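TICKET #2291
ISSUE: user wants both folds in one file
ATTACHMENT 1:
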Amino acid sequence: MVDVLSQNEIDALLAALSSGEMDAEELKKEETQKKVRAYDFKRAVRFSKDHIRSLTRIHENFARFLTTYFSAQLRTFVQINVVQVEQLPYDEFIRSIPKMTILNIFEAEPLEGRMVLEVHPNVAFAMLDRLLGGAGTSPNKINALTEIETIVMERIFSRALDTLQEAWKTIIDLSPRLEALETNPQFMQIVSPNETIALISLSTKIGDTTGMVNLCIPHVVIEPIMQRLSGHHWFVSQKKTRAPEEEEVLQARLTKAKLPIIAELGTSQINVREFLGLMSGDVISLNKPVDEPLQIKVGEKLKFIGSPGTIRGKVAVQITDIVTEGEEENDE
């Protein structure tokens, strides 16, 4: 990774060169020498930049789906955005989260292994307060969950995981299922401490309450589908063929669709006084001659031209012409 100097560091470097504390020639020699970069085997790089970009795109959709879901459930302002997608050891993730937090441990078949959706207590208790009729504020002191609170949170987060399926559908069809809800990170060991994970951090705002929601995906869980996270997979167009049975069902439904058809004899304008004074036998003059063709509309679109008549003693309209899109625009 290339280091980027701040403006203060640039000013200090220029000042050192001008004062003679640093020699420009020595700096050039150092640049030509072979550089050695330290590699930390505890922080193994398992996700490429391409993988990180793909995970970012996927979970930006996940954030939008979550925003819609929680806004509907809580009936208040909710805003969720992806802040960062990074890779780090699982042990480091456990140490970074609060000792008392909401840990939704879940599986997503056909992937093998467990993942975690960690919700900051401020956010979780604001949701709980809103669901139970409150204003959506978080208590100053976070206590252990009661049985009722646990059941309520399990239900809302279990349904929230369904949005993960929608976000991942371009890569794989997942079936997320909440396995357990924990509050103490020390009791949650889904992978070995040194296992690399992808951590997706989501900033969450519910009303005036803010906090983080973290999605922990171990590398070992999504390793079988890592090739699908490449940019090539995203931009290769795959032609989808529709099964004959689906086409038959679609055609049958279209034939049953009902649309209003209106044969317009003409229009007229009268004032309210004339309308209130209408009596049986009164005649209203229309704006079209009797021998002029009628406009036949399907819905609100002009589609046919016809002429009025009768058939078997009933009023009827005979279609004499079909209106194309261009002719319709010219008529209007």
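ATTACHMENT 2:
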Amino acid sequence: MHLYALLLAGATSLKPLTGRVALVTGASRGIGKGIALELGAAGCTVYCAARSSRQTGFVSDDRPVAASVGELTVEQTAEDVTLNGGKGIPVPCDCSDEKAIEEVIARIRSDEGRLDVIVPSAFATPPKLADAAFRDDFWKQGMEMWDCCHGVGLRGTYATLLKATPLLIETAQKYDTRPLACLISSFGGQAYTFNVAYGVGKAATDRLARDASAQLSKHDVDTISLYPGVVATEGNLEMEERGEWAAASGGLDLAKAESPRFSGRAVVALLRQPEYCSENTGSYQVVSELASQFDFTDVDGRRAPSIRSLQYLVPNFLLTDAKIADMPAWQRGLARRFRDEWTPDYLLPWGVFSGGPPPEKTS
């Protein structure tokens, strides 16, 4: 093969999604930003939508953010997407407003003429609610928690899917491809997590992916509900720095968490496997389990275990340092070795995992 052809083939393999167009909401920070960056690294044109913008001066979280986190705006994300090898386009947008979403879709139709993937990742929690209270009893949280989780997270996801679907279908017909609607859910869709309103919203997101697939599959458009694990987002890192993470998370070790870009690599893997998406449309897929199946790692080379894996459950709930310290001296070394070296990567069946909340660290 000619040297130029070899170089061209190498560039294509490094950027398998060149020419594809993506819309990511909630792209100014967190999982949305991580997904936008990885789509860019794979060669996509990425429309980065969120409220936080240099143009409006709006910041989605009124709590202080460390300077080391950097600027959390759609403009910064778009610039980073371009630096990663894609084409980033910033779109200031309130994702709870269907008219604003409609305008974004109209712009993509006019400028690109196609839409290959949507990732509705926008989510909000009440900024006035103390972080520890995110796990509080629902009757103590009031309607603000429900309205935030469902007004942006669920309603925004539904509105984005609704407004984007005609262009997704047209793309499938015109370009002989299978567009993907990747909805961001969590293990909260299966088992009690954080609070009541959060879990209801994530379960509804899963149902949205499943029911929408019944209508979209015949148009060659796939829907997937994606489950990240514990993610080291800017907000979570900031909580840890302020000493609030332990109470908000129930004491999980953020040092072992996934990066936001791990979810992005999962989305890229799905887009590169249209047959898999077609066969599994309407299903929920776990980021770390996709990593094992399609052989990708996080940015640091690790693969965090799935939340339903014994490799996650044993060290985080069953054999914590505190529980081992309470054991007789002769048991401690064996318990640590079992936890750190012998615990298998066994996935609990979904029926077992979803049978109730995970055990508390203190139980």
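RESOLUTION: both attachments delivered.
EXTRA DETAIL ON ATTACHMENT 2: Residues 42 and 136 are 40 Å apart (CA to CA).
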